[in-house]
Description:
The complex is a heterotrimer.
Chain A: H1 3-74, H2 92-97, H3 112-143, H4 150-162, H5 165-176, H6 181-188, H7 200-228, H8 232-240, H9 245-273, H10 277-282, H11 294-304, H12 310-339
Helix pairs in contact in A: 1-12, 3-7, 3-9, 3-11, 4-7, 7-9, 9-12, 11-12
Chain B: E1 4-13, E2 16-26, E3 31-35, H1 42-50, E4 57-62, E5 65-66, E6 77-80, H2 92-102, H3 107-120, H4 136-148, E7 154-158, H5 166-183, E8 186-191, H6 194-200, E9 203-208, E10 211-216, H7 218-223, H8 228-233, E11 240-249, E12 252-257, E13 261-268, E14 278-282, E15 288-289, E16 296-306, E17 310-315, E18 320-325, E19 335-339, E20 346-348
Parallel strand pairs in B: 3-8, 3-9, 6-7, 7-8
Antiparallel strand pairs in B: 1-2, 1-4, 4-5, 9-10, 11-12, 11-14, 12-13, 14-20, 15-19, 16-17, 16-19, 17-18
Helix pairs in contact in B: 2-3, 2-4
Chain C: H1 2-9, H2 19-45, H3 50-54, E1 63-65, E2 67-68, E3 77-82, E4 91-98, E5 101-106, E6 109-117, E7 121-123, E8 125-127, H4 132-140, H5 143-174, H6 180-189, H7 199-208, H8 215-219, H9 226-236, H10 241-249, H11 254-265, H12 267-283, H13 286-291, H14 300-309, H15 315-347
Helix pairs in contact in C: 4-15, 5-9, 5-12, 10-11, 12-15, 14-15
Amino acid sequence: MAGPLSDAVTDRSGALARLGASLLGLVFNLAERPMALAQKALGPRRLPWVFLTPNLVVFGIFTFLPIAIDIHYALTGGAQLLPSQRPYVGLENFHDLFECENYLDPTSCKRDLFWFGIYNTAEFVVLQVGLMIVFSLMTALVLNRKIIGRGFFRAVFFYPVLLSPVVVALIWKWILQRQGLLNAALDGAGLSTTDWLLDAHWAFGWTVFVSIWAHMGFYTLILLAGLQAIPRDVYEAAEMDSAGPWRVFRRITLPLLAPNLAVVVVLALIRAVQIFDEVYVLTGGGPGSATTFMVQYVFQTAFTQQVRQYGLAAAASLLLAGVLFCLTLVQLRVMRSKGR
Amino acid sequence: MATLQLRRVVKRFHETAVIHGVDLEAAEGEFVVFVGPSGCGKSTLLRMICGLEEVSEGDILIDGVRVNEVPPARRGLAMVFQSYALYPHMSVYQNLSFGLENLRLPRAEIDAKVREAARMLRLDQFLERRPTALSGGQRQRVAIGRAIVREPRIFLFDEPLSNLDAELRVQMRGEIAQLHHRLGTNMIYVTHDQVEAMTMADKIVVLRAGRIEQVGAPLELYNAPANQFVAGFIGSPRMNFLEGTPTAVDGSIGVVVEGIGTIRTDASGEGVTEGARVTLGIRPEHVALGRCGCNDVSFDVAQSEQLGNTTTLFFASPGFAVQVAGQVPARRGEAMSLNLPPDRCHVFDADGKALPRQSKGAAA
Amino acid sequence: MTRLLAMLTARRGRGHLHWTDWASYLHLLIGLLLMFGPVLWLVLSSFKSEAGLVEFPPRLLPYEQARVSVEGYQQPLALFRITAGDMKGRELAEVRRIGLQAQMVDPANPREIIRIPAQDRERVMRLHFALENYGDLTGRFAFGTYLWNSVFITAMATLITLLVNSMAAFALSKYRFSGRDAVFVTILATLMIPPTIILVPNFFIASALGLVNSPWGVIWPGVATPTGVFLLRQYMLTIPDELIDAARMDHASEWRIYWRIVLPLSAPALAVLAIFSVMWRWNEFLWPMIVLNRSETFTLQLALNSFQGELTTSWNYLLAMTVLTLLPVTAIFLLLQRYITQGIASAGVK
Lengths: 340, 364, 350
């Protein structure tokens, strides 16, 4: 690394460490006096509310208040950001989104991109979650065996989970480009090459693949923890009953793993519906609208177009919220039944 | 040194009272032990005294000053917890100094006090260790040391010995008694173990279901239990109880026990109606072997425990135990002659209240 | 070696490998190639020169055409190996190329110009790590600024996350007060409101608070997290209440109890949350993209995204920057792998 860069980094990170340490002391000292006064003034019964306040304020401002404003945006029109300057339009934004001649054909809709987003997202969710769970389960089963270098392989499968979506997308973009590694390999094998991210079908397939690549380690880990919770003696008993591997899997592993599997499926669904980051960097939603998903539709409608249609974006995100709300209810239910 | 007074103290959790109006006084320098079965409210009472639980009704006074609303730290008390509650992330020294630092005492003074307490409790060489690196007895001493450095007006102990093994318990019992002797400070000590209560207390408070059953010096409780509960709780092995009906004998009361006959006592029969149910109580160590012409009985031996210095005999019918000094050969099924000295017999009425006795305890 | 073989084949105590073992190792081998190969390819590529990057088919390692400095020529000259004619096998440096003919010199004898047909020679390649891809980042791009922005946001957000959530967890785990359960359920309910569905109103709030184009606009919205509260509360429940009582008897104020007793004892849970928070913040993309519009406020992720979108993408710099971006995460992973995997397996969150 060049001099100026490393100097800048060491300089700033040293400053940061000092800042962190003095900040901790400062927080304690700053807070001690007012907290002591609060304790005296409020008494022990109301003091916990003081401890809860920062958290609740942040939740209030950045989670609960936005829900209300979201609804307001969805019911108002115009390009103004300030809620008070937006004219009330009732359900017009929703009508706008749903204005279609034929719901099965997005091109016949007024907001065709929205419908492309819905269909793409639905297809993506089914493919990505289905395939990812299968691969994760296979990997977890393999890692649950007495394998040499188990910890190493577990780390290998988990590592991509920690990478940022942008990095993930760039890694694969570099491999999939016209003169990338994949085409080189195919060329070397005498097979035909193509511009993977410029072909609608291939591009969609690769978004599924890349997001599986990036996330399957997480689900593998949870499933592996579930597998390791199954007592060994159950397997030994099955072996005594001379059950084959497939039978053991179908009749013992799968039923005992079912609660974990349910949790993992719901978690994966919730995250797949919100797919955006890595796809946006990898394909930008293209070619055409082949890889445009729901969140990207909201993002573009609100933030990247000449006329910013906040109302339309808010309406679309409320519909997305409805889907996620149902999925989260299922998640909480599944988790509770697992706890039992 | 301080005085402690409780006046009609009541504690409720969600409308259910767990302490029903307790009145109590502790004089300066007194060692008071709260004893009772688990769930009797003794720990709750202690936590109310130190301020960790709010008082629902009534008053708590320290040195005559009402402290109900005073926060725990400002009551001038120190507490030794059952689990010791040592701060696991601090060294022994930091555990001892933490409270003093919170008082913003000067460093030098803190250091002097910590070292003084450490010397007194023989903790000098462990000051830099973490609590996890100490034995049970050492942890116990740190917990006591943490209380000592604060120089409290009253020490509170919440079952401090229940996590120790039997041998260490005896040793720590002695150390706490010695500490009390040396410091002369009031101590309030909660335990469910009547042996601890008997060996350490100036005054024992027997609690049951949120009520005081009896307050008194250890031997007072032993010799003249106010009721059947105290009689059964204090003393080991447990007092024998035989149910029967009262009958007047020479101005005293006799108890007619089915299958045994009339047993004479020296309790007065005042206020006892003919035909009521009464209970006769006698401690196993007060039953004598052989015949003396008064209250002679004969039971079949069910089991005998030979400890060398004492022998405990158990009789199946009626359920009855006898403890005698020395070694008494006894075979299972063998009939044994016993006598129940009348001046050692307690009589309890249908409500469990002890009837007054003429020889007042007949100590010795 | 035989021992290793015996160990390899000792599955199921039968002395030979079951077919499921073969399948397992095959699975792992393909997995290793697929999961780790791309990252390795990225790192190797990032050391290639601009010319090496456009080469097709690409080489595995970063090669570059060898150059030699020859007496009488100011610039180093490209080196070729002659493949035909009477000079076959010799390595000559190219002075210039005219049509199908190349003028070459022998580095050992620089005065004599040799003419060689262009198709009768091949380039001499040498292993060369193009470190300038990394070195030039600060000069050509405001890499230091992006790095600082990312580090600042990650560090500040993590500190505040730990503080805010541990305070709430302390209140929810160590006090009995009316409304406690309602608050806890409310906080858990925010799981149902992921940030992606409140982008528009949050942008309004950020702009109303003057947080657009400020790192604090990225930091604040994600500071309170239901996951964090839940994780810390569950851990704090295991701290015995007697410790808190003891501290109260020790004249400690409630704030001091929180700071000096409960926080240090919650260190393992705080560490897990800190690791999560660092990962979340370092990798965060969509929300920063909305709040940060000016390039001097960009985080590394945003900078990467905006460079890859430019038409004149210089892949050599982009790849180097990508490697630098994944470096801290990789370092944390290597150091704290066990912590992270255990934390995730036990908390079931990411």
